[in-house]
């Protein structure tokens, strides 16, 4: 019988792109199997150049290896928002914007070394599924904003999306045929209210159900449509605003009855203060803003 898990999406770039250890639980129902959508992020489709100019690939360099590790979202020329569990203590991160195909140089890319990784102060670290799974990455060199590289505004403070509405998620996460697809993938997601999301995890036999009211969950949960490992930290966008940061899902990806989970953008409010205090502690004369 297959076991199910709440999966933090990041890939362990320091281990040749292998998946991070899973937080496994014992299922109560029958074994699940993956549904179709071969060759895509589960149920998604190829993006085109410039379609998601706020998306970045966070690439981890360790020794002689450099690989896509997490997604991220540009919120200013020098600031990227990502997941808290994407923070790494080893290696060097590079944020690549204007990217479409990881295997090709299209002439639209911009690259900047990540100078600081600041997780939410209430994120417990490790692979814990948490409502505070969010981080700010500061860049050593600001991006030049334009057609292929743009910042996206944050959703209004205190707002959460309405159940049943649509949002767009994107990333280079695993597909049924590739651990890391070459071309950026995207899908239309449907917002699920948190009570229904929590019920779905209960039905899946997830112990220590992590879903709380402040999380954002998406479907559809009919099977074959899902985010997966490598999508971590990527954007969930609605009405041209960043409403969430990709955080977790149930494995196997694309299983029937399995939602995807996001940290709401409103969690950036506390993180703003943390970034500012960090700057003060470093005796900076210029406030870091996001």
TrEMBL record:
Give the matching SMART domains: Tryp_SPc
Q: Which residue ranges traverse the bilayer? A: none
State whether keyword Signal applies. Answer: yes
Molecular function terms, GO-annotated: serine-type endopeptidase activity
**GO BP terms:** proteolysis
Alphabetical list of PROSITE patterns matching this protein: TRYPSIN_DOM, TRYPSIN_HIS
| UniProt xrefs under SUPFAM superfamilies | Trypsin-like serine proteases
Q: Does the keyword Signal apply?
A: yes
Tell me which domain of life the UniProt entry assigns to the organism this sequence originates from.
Eukaryota
The UniProt record lists the Peptidase S1 domain at 41-263
Task: Give the CDD domains listed for this entry.
Answer: Tryp_SPc
Q: Specify one Pfam family.
A: Trypsin
Q: Which UniProt keywords apply?
A: Disulfide bond, Signal
The positions making up the signal sequence are 1-17
Question: PANTHER family annotated for this entry?
Answer: ACROSIN-RELATED, HYALIN
The entry's protein name is Chymotrypsin 9
């Amino acid at each position: 019988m297959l076991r199910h898990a709440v999966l933090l999406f990041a890939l362990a770039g320091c281990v040749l792109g292998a998946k991070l250890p899973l937080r496994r639980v014992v299922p109560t129902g029958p074994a699940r199997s993956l549904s179709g959508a071969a060759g895509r992020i589960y149920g998604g489709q190829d993006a085109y150049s410039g379609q998601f100019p706020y998306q970045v690939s966070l690439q981890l360099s360790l020794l002689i290896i450099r690989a896509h590790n997490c997604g991220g979202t540009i919120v200013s020329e020098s600031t990227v928002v990502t997941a808290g569990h994407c923070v790494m203590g080893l290696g060097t991160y590079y944020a690549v914007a204007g990217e479409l195909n990881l295997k090709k140089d299209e002439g639209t890319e911009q690259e900047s070394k990540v100078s600081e990784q600041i997780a939410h102060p209430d994120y417990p670290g490790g692979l814990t599924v948490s409502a505070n799974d969010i981080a700010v990455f500061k860049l050593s060199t600001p991006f030049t904003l334009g057609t292929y590289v743009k910042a996206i505004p944050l959703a209004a403070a205190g707002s959460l999306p309405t159940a049943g509405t649509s949002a767009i998620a994107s990333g280079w996460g695993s597909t049924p045929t590739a651990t890391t697809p070459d071309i950026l993938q995207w899908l239309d997601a449907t917002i699920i209210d948190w009570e229904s999301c929590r019920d779905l995890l209960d039905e899946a036999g997830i112990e220590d159900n992590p879903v709380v009211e402040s999380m954002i969950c998406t479907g559809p949960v009919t099977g074959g449509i899902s985010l997966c490992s490598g999508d971590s930290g990527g954007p969930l966008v609605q009405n041209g605003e960043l409403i969430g940061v990709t955080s977790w899902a149930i494995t196997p990806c694309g299983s029937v009855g399995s939602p995807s989970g996001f940290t709401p953008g409103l969690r950036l409010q506390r993180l703003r203060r943390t970034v500012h205090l960090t700057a003060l502690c470093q005796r900076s004369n210029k406030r870091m803003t996001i």
